Amino acid sequence: MQFSQVYGLESIKKKLIASVKANRLAHALLFLGPEGSGKLALASALTQYVYCSNPSDTDSCGECSSCRKITSLTHPDVHYSFPHTGGADGISDDFILQWRELVTKNKYFNITNWAAITAKDENKSPNLNIKEVRKILTKLSLKSYEGEAKSLILWMPEYLQGQSNALLKLIEEPPQKTYFSLVAENSDALLATITSRTQLIKVPKYTEAETQQFLIDKYALDPQKAEQIAYLSEGNFNKAVELVESVEDNYAEMFRDWMLACYSNNLGKVSTLADSMHKLGRVQLQYFLTNGLSILRESMLYQTIDNYQIKAEKGQQDFIKKFSTTLNASCIEKSYAQINEVIYHIQRNANAKIAIFNLSLQLRYNFIRNK
Ligand SMILES: [Zn+2]
């Protein structure tokens, strides 16, 4: 991965590049950032920059043999270590194929995603065991294959068990030209001896604008949809990916049915729909409601601006037009505010089922008064 493929984080990239060029890159770095931030991406881009045979002032070339091997996670001098579910006898290398497949596709996953791929038995929790630590020591004490430098990218050092003194000692007194990149999420769970032996690179969570751009690039989402999902992702690319990949296509239809049920005072239908919405789960429900808000917003704009071009998929346009001609402006505005408030409460763990049913009653009341 090149630096240019890592979203945002420009000032951190600049500092890292400057220290490589000045030949004063710390031999042990701790990339610490929340879930779904660019910490693993940064560590990968930095490693590639260090090994690249033709780097520019701002990035690795992406084309030389080293770059290609690092991109495919097959460079013989760049080692990866990560929690695994192989029990006391397992090592990370037992899972290297799954690791390569996941990391080349997505660098924002969390430990739960990873464990779900590797654990055959759900009760097995991932860890970095003593056998893995010994394996790391062996790998790093061997002569390097290609260049002079050897690297270890250690993902989630939080999962190192107590007996990792040998590794700590190695980090403290590393062999010549050996680089450690530790990629961690939770500083409280890290051994103090790790934080004291590494240089900290704090990786902030992503902004909404960066998340929106990421979604547009990766999934070719339209900007409005990307904005909604970015808002709900709270700067977590992993959450954004999960939202996009699990979003139902029928939300617009479901929203329309719900509005019609409220309008026609069909409480039986309202109750059934409230059940289905509740079953979506908290995050999807927020997305569903946010999507509904954009339908109301478009209705308001269509109502007030002459020849307004509705920003929505074709299938939704008729509904938006109908909505805006059936209901008056203050009714739509009021409904918008009420839905918005429920999103706020659901984010803060309100009982979703009750909140949705109450909201339905409020909307029904708005619509009756409108008639
Ligand atoms: Zn290169």
Automatic annotation (TrEMBL):
GO BP terms in the entry: DNA-templated DNA replication
Stored InterPro entries: DNA_Rep/Repair_Clamp_Loader, P-loop_NTPase
Entry-linked Pfam families: DNA_pol3_delta2
PANTHER family: DNA POLYMERASE III SUBUNIT DELTA, REPLICATION FACTOR C / DNA POLYMERASE III GAMMA-TAU SUBUNIT
Name by which UniProt lists this protein: DNA polymerase III gamma/tau subunit
